[in-house]
Amino acid sequence: MSARTAWSGIVRSPLGLTALSLFLLVALTAIFAPIIWGAQAEQVNPAEITQGPSAAHLLGTDTLGRDVLARVLVATRLSVVLAVLAVIIGVVAGTLLGTAPSVLPRWAGRPIVGFVNIAVAFPGLLLALFFAVIFGVGTTGSVLAIGFAMAPQFARLTQTLSAAIAGRDFISAAQVAGVSRVRILIRHILPNIGEPLIVNATVAAGSALLAFAGLSFLGLGVQVPAYDWGRLLGEGLNRIYLNPAAALGPAVAVVIAGLAFNLLGETAAAALGGRSARRRHALPAVASSSPRADAPQPAQVDGDDVVLLVDDLRVSFPTPAGWVTPVRGVSFAISRGEAIGVVGESGSGKSLTALAAARLIERPGHIDAARLDFCGTSLLTSPDRAIRSLLGTSLAMVFQDPMTSFNPTRRIGSQLAEAASEHQGMSRRDAMTRAVQRLQSVRVPAAARRAHQYPHEFSGGMRQRAMIAMGLMNHPRLIIADEPTTALDVTVQRQVLQLLAGVRRDTDAAILLISHDIAVVAQTCERVLVMYAGRIVEDLPAAALHTGAQHPYTRALLEVVPELDADRDAPLKMIPGRPPAPGAFPPGCAFADRCPLASAVCRERDPELAAAGPGHRVACWHPVDDRVAASAAQAQIEEETVPR
Fold first, then answer.
1. Residue 631 to residues 237, 444, 637, Cα–Cα distance (Å)
2. Cα–Cα distance between 383 and 206 in angstroms, integer?
3. Residue ranges per structural domain of the chain
């Protein structure tokens, strides 16, 4: 998203529109009010001394007969200018204090850090009064007092931001290259912390207005014949029982200007947040969802039984260099009551595929597909309300770590009951009754008592059972289990897998099981999808996994599974090399650099996912279809594992 697009989107929001309107009102008043109403504000009229509001003087007149409203409008320029000057002083002084420890030797930087820590502990207005006494009464003294009173907060902010940037690799590289500390500060640190400082400075301008009004009200700020809102407020307060409008006018002006600066800061933060790293890199448009001629087609299934249909799914995320697509062209289908396992190394796109199917990819992530249908409803074109209702009642997610999936401050039963109350309109009592029943159905002992306990009172296996029970609170047609047994011991792992199998048998729900463990998937599922570098490289029946796998990567995954009768003195088997990064997929087959059967064509063209038998698809130029090739691949893997 470009800077112009970001700002235009924010400005069109209610917050942005209000902030812009108020800021323009204050700015235009500060510029033109002295020109338009300057003479009226200074005109003394003894015949109209201390009059109340009237058609000629909306806020009345002061003790010299001058129009109070005109003086409030004219005072906008001085009030705003003084506040801005104080903020500039505070930002400059705070930045110098905050960055000094990174430039000066440690023995000189520590006292500065200690001084900032002590100064931050004092209230800003108290510091302003302290500095006002030091610098003296008057406009100059007030500007310096408020500016230096704001410096500690900017110093602390600068220290925090600088510390975060100082740990980056490019700072270490500059230090190794011999770049001086001052140059690192100017060229590398300050440009990366500029935007947060500007946003906070905008918000601080509203506080500076209030501080100036307070000092002038106490007689320490602007002195006659000059006047600002604080001085006008003090004069109006002396006659508040005779003419309340004289005090109300400058007070309202201070509030409006303060809101303008604070809302402007919030708007700037919303527009600039997360954009610093890519503000100079315009991102290309994401490819449209039109189907590709060479896109792998999902397995053919009966349309009435299809629960999830994925056709040419792509998931993309923006980076400074452009869009990165870690899931690229995934196609498959799941039928009612079917169990499909998805296996692959970390970073292969398994979880992203599942999250995309559940519409859990948040912006700026982008989902693109020729078709993405759940229970016959398109998840790409249907209204959000209809999709939320469908997914809330027919889709269940079982995550890898149930401790982070449950709210630690709420009881298990209430969290389960919320699902039924939200999507089925059940009463609180009925929903809690169903929650206890669902906990019983997943074999949680003493379910009625357990429902009133907190997540930390459950063991890992019990939390995973409760997570499955939450999915069963409605009537799911698909259960997506993303690494549901990774953090569990072998015994509990078996119980959870048996529980999922029982749920599938009892409810006829389809299961999409994501796992690193290909052995678990082979024992639990009917079909296996093998993913590598964001693509499905093989789709085959689980019964044929050990004997009929044809892709070298699938074979390698099977070979690295440890066995009980393996030689303990021999090194563990492993797949040589590492998977490519999502933003650095090589041309051709992504597994070519790690494959012992790779040839020139593998590094030039990416193979399509083509039929290799009944219910079997494979994407490989050299599928392993005989024992000789399989033995050669295994020999290469074992050779890579021998220590040198």
1. 95, 47, 10
2. 42
3. 3-40+56-278, 303-409+454-641
- End-to-end, the C-alpha distance of the chain in Å comes to 50
Report d(CA 625, CA 614) in Å as an integer: 15
* Residues whose CB falls within 8 Å of the CB of residue 549, separated by 6 or more in sequence, listed in order: 538, 540, 555, 558, 624
- Crossing angle, helix 139-166 and helix 124-135, to 10 degrees? 130
**What is the C-alpha to C-alpha distance for residues 491 and 375, in angstroms, rounded to an integer?**
34
**Dihedral sign, Cα of residue 345, residue 346, residue 348, residue 349:** positive
Question: CA 418 to CA 387: how far, in whole Å?
Answer: 18
CATH superfamily of 303-409+454-641: P-loop containing nucleotide triphosphate hydrolases (3.40.50.300)
Cβ–Cβ < 8 Å for 539, 527: yes
- 277 vs 240: CA distance, rounded Å: 53
Of all helices (H) and strands (E), which one includes residue 279?
A: none
* Other beta carbons within 10 Å of 278: 18
The reply to whether the predicted model has a pTM over 0.85 is no
Tens-place pLDDT, residues 204-239: 888 888 888 888 888 888 888 888 888 888 888 888
303-409+454-641 matches 3-40+56-278 in CATH topology = no
34-63 pLDDT, tens digit per residue, is 999 888 888 888 888 888 888 888 888 888
Angle at alpha carbon of residue 143, lines to 140 and 147, rounded to 5°: 145
What is the spatial distance between Cα 25 and Cα 261, in angstroms, rounded to a whole number?
11
* DSSP conformation class of 286: P
Query: What sign does the dihedral 602-604-606-608 (CA atoms) show?
Result: negative
Nearest to 482, CA basis, from 369, 387, 343, 368: 343
Collapse the DSSP code of 282 into the 3-class scheme (helix H, G, I; strand E, B; otherwise coil) and give the result: coil
Rounded Cα gap, residues 44 and 434, in angstroms: 80
Report d(CA 205, CA 474) in Å as an integer.
52
- CATH classification (class only), 3-40+56-278: mainly alpha
Q: How far apart are CA 250 and CA 59, in angstroms?
A: 10
Separation CA 606–CA 197 (nearest Å): 48
